[in-house]
Amino acid sequence: MQTPLLQTVIEVHGGLERYHATSAFDVSVHIAGPLFLMRLCSPLRRDLRLLVSTQTIGATCSDWPRRGLNGVFASDEVRIVDAQRQVLQRRALPATLAFRTLVVKYPDQFPTHSPTQTFAFDGLGRLRRLDYTAHVFGDWARAAHFCDEYESFDGFLVSTRRAACARISGGVLRSMPLLYGGVTACRALT
Question: What is the count of structural domains for the chain?
Fold first, then answer.
């Protein structure tokens, strides 16, 4: 069921007709932050390229976790593959203000880092904040993900600056982002 807020959000971000005519998004992003230290990775800025499908649940991150390898997110697992698409590693996914908000509860079979997420939109229908728990790090990993500096790419509105901050008890935020980055390019593929 589409609520008036959901209808506004969909239209502001490009509309269902344009979305259904798109097979994937080719997205260039940059990310950095101390969160990577938890996975024994450098917290320095990385430029990444993602191919995100609109037809299936899936995305591929080129040169992740290092040059020559690709990170693949599928509906039931994440895996690292080499240039010949040979699987090197795989991990099954668990089955699990002035803003207007939507609380989304994903079905058990939908792969997500947080089965319940709260999306907060501004008066124009743009996503400004997303609250979730990053269960891949632990049940303690509560975050507020902020979206800013919107640009249009092929008719789709995309946040080009993002930052994730820790949420501690009572919803209080820590001021230093654990992860930050942004989209530098996005192309709708048909």
Answer: 1
Burial of 173 (0-12, 13-18, 19+ CB in 10 A): middle
CATH number at residue 97: 2.50.20
Place of tokens 């654990």: 178
Q: For residue 162, give every residue at least 6 positions away whose Cβ sits within 8 Å of its Cβ, in sequence order, or none.
A: 145, 146, 147, 148, 180, 181, 182
Distance CA 24, CA 26 (A): 7
70-121 pLDDT, tens digit per residue, is 999 887 778 999 999 999 998 876 543 457 889 999 988 888 889 999 999 9
Indicate whether this model's pTM tops 0.90. Answer: no
Domain that holds residue 11: 4-189
Note whether 25 and 6 are within 8 A (CB). Answer: no
